[in-house]
Write a structure and sequence with these properties.
The complex is a heterodimer of chains A (313) and B (284). In chain A, 73% of the residues lie in helices and 0% in strands. Chain A is globular, with a radius of gyration of 27 Å. Chain B has 284 residues and is mainly alpha-helical. Chain B has two domains: 34 residues; 223 residues, MetI-like fold (Orthogonal Bundle). Chain B has twelve helices and no strands. The mean pLDDT of chain B is 88. Classes of the chains: A mainly alpha (313), B mainly alpha (284). At the A-B interface, α1, α2, α4, α5 and α6 of A face α1, α3, α4, α5 and α6 of B.
Chain lengths: 313, 284
């Protein structure tokens, strides 16, 4: 038996494989798929898709949590009010864009710098890589509590440091100030998310072929040229994926702003998620909150569409 | 093309690297240091201006206060453990076969189903919770552990399925073929061959789901109304924001206690997570 010709071994393995594949044929695979995917699909249907459909249907009613039995069809009234009269909604859309775009740019730039630095041969590299994840891992509510303390107007360490450095003359009441509250939550948010960009970009950098870098070096390409023509193209797919993810996540961010400012002062940090939540659970206007949600979903859909088109070039 | 080449100035490159790294490290680590430092101070000292960078007087009193707080901290912590462990368990059980199905079975609508599952994580939780609350009220699972576990599980499913699909694909198909030839059924292959081989993936999914539930504010806040059912995030929010915002030291002792497990778990786990994500991404 030890001397079976290689081609025979090959043939018999092929034969076994054929049986394996045929016995998995259409019908039984479909049945197993139903069995294996059933639980996941049921959970998603109940918790995600049914509520989404219900949001669509509520958006044309005056449903309210206060009156569970009253729910009248009111046509497009919610949408008319939303578009023509609701100035807070407009503020919320603007703030959401400011919050999302600044957070993604800030987090990406800092995270990229960190990833490049921690990809160099520096002492304690592995420990730093792990420890640098801490801000991302701390629960969102705790991040918000830390923000409240550090940006506190009277005892906050940020005010103290800025004043000692001569950058400000008076303590800034960060969360009481229309001009500063948004800045404070954005900084906190960037702090929270920087490690995620670092983690993903570092993983990408580690698959960058060394030979290519060496060859470019020998051919006389400077460090900038190597970054521009080798590193960036190599990372482009990872960059596309993480920026898309983070745009969507930040668009949906609730924890940080709800815990620190609840949208205040005077709507200075009111973003879509907080405004929708307030309409649904503070003012109990389920119908109106649903109308906002429908708009929001359309926005997300448009973003995804253009993003996918841009990715496919 | 720019002719800038840092390699020609190794000294400059080294010192620039170190300086930049130091600045970024202060940015990354200072807030956590500050939380720990404050948690070890008597509360008066948390108000000191100029601030005490290192506690003048170190005390563990704030930690004791938290650990002895039956109706507050201990209650939130217990609820958090129950709900998060439940979520981890359910996520593994439901996502495991689903991940396998996407990796190995050939069936109608496979691509579309995978897309639906992945897309479900893009929907804003705030939107879903508007009507999920009404649904929960109608079927009487507001304020229950089952209700919270169900909601949290739905949010960790997309990631878990994606991860486990990647891990299942990494199992050599020949092993499965061999088991099949020896008379093993699909279920047998899954149970005896695949599961033992992808245990690391299951652990990763479990921990990820645990942390997701542990940190979730929105669902925990909206789907519970009674104090006894609060998990940590809504519990802390209601305890420390607003009225009691002057209890900084207590707050940070509690914060350190609830962050510690997540920090340890996550950093220990990151290798699996990145591997799973990358495996999924490469084959997607």
């Amino acid at each position: 038996m030890e001397h079976v010709a290689p081609s025979n071994v090959h043939r018999s393995r092929k034969w076994l494989r054929a049986i394996f594949l045929s016995r998995q044929g259409r019908l039984s695979d479909n049945l197993y798929a139903l069995l294996f995917l059933g639980p996941v699909l049921i959970i998603l249907a109940v918790v995600i898709f049914y509520p989404l459909v219900r949001v669509l249907s509520y958006s044309v009613t005056n449903a309210s949590l206060l009156f569970p039995n009253r729910q009248e069809y009111i046509g497009l009234e919610n949408f008319e009010y939303l578009l023509n009269q609701d100035t807070i909604f407009r503020t919320a859309v603007k703030n959401t864009l400011v919050f999302t775009i600044s957070s993604v740019i800030g987090g990406f730039v800092l995270g990229f710098m960190l990833a490049l630095l921690l990809n160099e041969n520096i002492p304690l590299r592995n420990i730093l890589r792990g420890a640098a994840l801490i801000p991302w891992v701390i629960p969102g509510v705790i991040v918000a509590l830390m923000t409240l303390y550090m940006f506190n107007g009277e005892v906050g360490i940020i005010n103290y440091t800025l004043k000692s450095a001569g950058l400000i003359d008076e303590f800034i009441p960060w969360f009481g100030s229309l001009d500063h509250a948004m800045l404070a939550v954005i900084i906190a948010n960037i702090w929270n998310q920087t490690p995620f960009y670092m983690l993903m970009l570092l993983a990408g950098l580690q698959t960058r072929p060394d030979e290519l870098m060496e060859a470019a070096k020998i051919d006389g390409a400077g460090s900038w040229a190597r970054f521009r023509h080798i590193t960036l193209p190599h990372l482009s797919k990872v960059i596309m994926i993480i920026t898309a993810l983070m745009v969507i996540w930040n668009f949906n961010n609730f924890d940080l702003i709800w815990t620190t400012t609840q949208g205040g002062p005077v709507n200075a940090t009111m973003v879509l998620s907080v405004y929708t939540y307030r309409q649904a659970f503070v003012s109990f206007n389920t119908g109106y909150a649903s109308a906002i949600a429908v708009f929001w979903l359309l926005g997300l859909l448009a973003f995804s569409y253009f993003y996918i088109r841009a990715m496919e070039g | 093309m720019l002719s800038l080449d840092l390699d020609q100035y190794p000294r400059f490159k080294a010192s620039a690297t170190v300086t930049l790294l130091l600045i970024l490290m202060v940015f990354i680590f200072f807030p956590t240091f500050w939380m720990l430092s404050t948690s070890l101070k008597p509360n008066e000292d948390a108000f000191a201006v100029p601030p005490q960078w290192v506690p003048r007087e170190v005390t563990l009193k704030n930690y004791q206060t938290q650990i002895n707080d039956r109706s507050g901290f201990r209650n939130y912590f217990r609820n958090g453990v129950i709900v998060s462990a439940g979520t981890a368990l359910v996520s593994i059980i439901v996502a495991m076969p689903a991940g396998y199905a996407f990796a190995r079975l050939r069936f109608r609508g496979k691509r579309a189903l995978l897309l639906i599952i992945l897309a479900s994580q893009m929907f804003p939780a705030v939107i879903i919770v508007i009507t999920l609350y009404s649904l929960y009220r109608e079927i009487h699972i507001l304020d229950t552990y089952q209700g919270l576990i169900l909601a949290f599980t739905s949010f960790s499913i997309p990631f878990s399925v994606w991860m486990l699909r990647g891990f299942c694909e990494s199992v050599p198909e020949e092993i499965e073929e061999a088991a099949f030839v020896d008379g093993c059924s699909r279920l047998g292959i899954l149970w005896r061959i695949v599961i033992p081989l992808i245990k690391p993936g299951m652990v990763a999914v479990g921990l990820f789901s645990f942390l997701n539930a542990w940190n979730n504010l929105l669902f925990a806040l909206s789907l519970t109304t009674r104090l006894e059912m609060r998990t940590i995030p809504p519990g802390f929010l209601l305890t420390y924001v607003g009225e009691f915002q002057y209890k900084w030291s207590d707050m940070f002792a509690g914060s350190a206690l609830v962050s510690l497990p997540t920090v340890i778990l996550f950093i220990g786990l990151q290798r699996f997570l990145v591997k799973g994500l990358m495996a999924g991404a490469v084959k997607g």
